[in-house]
Amino acid sequence: MKTPASSIVMFLVAALLGAVGQYLYKVGSARIGVGWRGCLLNAPLLGGVFCYVAVMVLFVAAFRRGGNMAVLYPLYASTFIWAALIALLAFDTPIKPVNIAGMALLVGGMVLMGC
Length: 115
What we know:
Layout: H1 5-29, H2 35-40, H3 43-64, H4 69-76, H5 79-91, H6 97-114
């Protein structure tokens, strides 16, 4: 069964949203106030929750269109690459050679899983 291009695009968007959600959780964690209101009124945390809900919606939509798990889930692993790039841009977190090697292995695995 061939995975539709629309399902692949949905999973790549989900990967990007997952990384944005991680960024928003990090930013929101620094702004948490006291008590439950500190979480519920925290815009970055709520944005992170929204991102993860959107990821799940995209997963369901992609599978409903006939997406193959063996093709799609490795694409979602690109979340870690997006997260590293966001951390570099937002927090000036360096990407070390070992990180680049890990990213290359992720991409290689994605290619192999898609064969």
